[in-house]
Write a structure and sequence with these properties.
This protein has about 220 residues and is mainly alpha-helical. The protein has helices spanning about 15-45, 50-75, 80-110, 120-145, 145-170, 180-205. This is PhoU domain-containing protein.
């Protein structure tokens, strides 16, 4: 069974439907954090938002989701157990995105100048693709759309390969100052991990629970290695 199989059964307000709405709220917050953190790092935008306060909000929502899941299982121990397992797993993926957004802002603190050059141009293209991936993930999760979820997983596979190729190229650089190479490699790595966590969320709409986070055929993605 997939998480999307339970959506129609949750037309009325239940503890698990409330937990699902909280996960969707977290996805929206994470998307805003992602866009903000990259503006700070790549455009030298002034840090008008407290990224740590936003992340604490994400943490509180994660705890609330887990509480809803536990309360549901305590009252209905034989009802929607698989859905409860899905939610308790993917909420951790959603929360982890906030941690990577904090890491991106912290990179900006160590690299105050505006980064430029071909690697940054490619990073901006990847940023745009991940923002689209984010929109698709939120829509798929809201609607329980397994086909759109599958598209998110395919997008991540392509994105992860592109990030790895760029990181490999950076490691082979001989003319770039070490600090510049490290900043660019970490930027690409953090963006890749955001994409991977979105893929894990989308996989809940495509895969049964025991294959959560894996390809539909059950094999690991290269992006997870």
């Amino acid at each position: 069974m997939f998480l999307s199989d339970f959506y129609k059964a949750w037309e009325k307000t239940t503890l698990l439907s409330e937990a699902t709405r909280m996960c969707e709220e977290m996805l929206g917050i994470g998307h805003q954090m992602f866009q903000y953190s990259l503006r700070v790092l790549m455009d030298n935008e002034k840090q008008a938002e407290d990224i740590y306060a936003i992340d604490r909000r994400m943490n509180r929502l994660e705890i609330a989701v887990r509480r809803k899941v536990v309360e549901h299982l305590a009252v209905n121990p034989k009802q929607d157990v698989i859905a409860a397992l899905f939610l308790s797993s993917i909420v951790s993926d959603i929360e982890r995105i906030g941690d990577y957004c904090k890491n991106l802002v912290e990179l900006a603190q160590h690299y105050p100048e505006k980064p430029t050059g071909p690697y940054i141009d490619r990073a901006r293209e990847i940023e745009s693709e991940i923002s689209q991936e984010y929109d698709m993930t939120i829509k798929a999760f809201r609607q329980g759309d397994s086909e759109l979820g599958r598209l998110v997983m395919e997008t991540n596979a392509r994105m992860a390969r592109n990030c790895d190729l760029l990181i490999d190229s950076l490691l082979a650089e001989t003319d770039m100052p070490g600090k510049d190479a490290v900043i660019r490699a970490l930027l690409l790595r953090f963006m890749k991990r955001v994409s991977v966590h979105l893929k894990n969320v989308a996989s809940s709409l495509v895969n049964p629970y025991h294959k959560l986070g894996y390809k539909p055929d059950g094999t690991p993605d290269d992006s997870d290695e």
